[in-house]
Amino acid sequence: MSCIEQIEYEILLQGASFKESAEYIKKHFREWYEVEPGYRLFDSHLIGVPPVVLGVEGEDVIFPYVKPCRGTFLLRANSPDEVAKLRAKKKR
Amino acid sequence: MTETEGKTALLLLGCPQVPVQTSVAIHLCDQLRERGIAPVIAGTGSARKLIEVADPKRRYIGEVVDLDDCIDAIAEKERDFDYAYVFIHNDGGVSYAGTLSAISQAHLVGIVYGEHADETAALITFPCEVVATKATHNPMPIVVKLGKVLP
Predict the structure, then answer these.
(1) Which residue has the higher pLDDT, B86 or B18?
(2) Which residues in A have their CB inside 8 Å of a CB on B?
(3) Measured between CA atoms, how close is A6 to chain B, in angstroms?
(4) Rounded to a whole number, what is the distance in Å from the CA of A77 to chain B's nearest CA?
(5) Do B98 and A38 touch (CB under 8 A)?
(6) Distance between CA atoms of residues A19 and B95, nearest Å
(7) Which of B75, B91, B98 sits opposite A71 (nearest CB)?
(8) CB contact B68 to A (< 8 Å)
(9) B103 — contact with chain A (CB < 8 Å)?
(10) Contact A45 B75 (CB under 8 A)
(11) Looking at the partner chain, which of A36, A38, A67 has a beta carbon nearest the beta carbon of B92?
(12) DSSP conformation class of A60
């Protein structure tokens, strides 16, 4: 996830566990998808416990970002391309 | 020629907040080399520096690479290992081990340590051999347990 600093994002959660972040997405977003760790998002590979849950709202994607020392951040970023890529997958 | 000769192992280091990580990693490199296995360390900047300063002539450690670059290379199928040892003391460490379980063909071992080792180990819900102990400053409990699962 080395390219994350190059996009504009909003922090929805910080200090939560990876599991709590996944549960937050399922609870707060009607549209969500499951992908495998390593899934390429914003030109980086997602880190996480399988399956990784990603939320979508409008043209925003909601995704977990793991930092080794600081844990999981749940981020929201605008990306019609990433949303279209996810929507091409089967919705859960 | 032994069964393990010529094989490779990844040691994935997380945040070096808990003191045992560096010494156990160097010890593990030595044990792997004894078995003919080439160790490669991937870690955060500070984790790598601690290792490199502790073994300046690289008598034990070998190649040392950036954590994100290593994950990228494995995910892109440019590189893989026969064994992967992930050092875990927090939720982030579990996430990195989970990632390797999905992108790598390596035999995966999670070395779980720190004050909350049992709770952290319980978060490992994917295929992974787990070595867990509450060690924080004394590396010996980990070294003993790890010795029982080495190839």
Answers:
(1) B86
(2) 1-2, 17-19, 36-38, 40, 44-50, 66-72
(3) 15
(4) 21
(5) no
(6) 10
(7) B91
(8) yes
(9) yes
(10) yes
(11) A67
(12) E
Is the Cβ pair B71, A45 closer than 8 Å?
yes
Question: Residue A1: its pLDDT value, please?
Answer: 47
Q: Which residues on chain B are in Cβ contact (under 8 Å) with A19?
A: 123
- In angstroms, the CA B61 to CA B41 distance is 8
Test mutation, A2, A21, A66, A67, chain B, max B CBs within 10 A: A66
Q: What is the pLDDT of residues A31-88, one digit of tens each?
A: 999 999 999 999 999 999 999 999 999 999 999 999 888 889 999 999 999 999 999 9
Tokens of B45: 């900047």
Q: What is the pTM of this model?
A: 0.94
ipTM of the complex: 0.92
Tokens of B137: 């400053």
Length of chain B: 151
pLDDT in tens, B88-99: 999 999 999 999
> Using an 8 Å Cβ cutoff, are B13 and B40 in contact?
no
Q: Which CATH number fits domain B8-147: 2.60.40.1930, 3.40.50.300, 3.10.20.30, 3.40.50.10160?
A: 3.40.50.10160
Judged by CB atoms closer than 8 Å, whether chains meet at A49 and B68 is answered as no
Q: CA B10 to CA B70: how far, in whole Å?
A: 9
Burial readout B35-50 (b: 16 or more C-beta within 10 A, e: otherwise)? eebebbbbbbeebbeb
Where do runs of H (alpha helix) occur along chain B? 20-34, 45-54, 67-75, 91-103, 117-121, 140-147
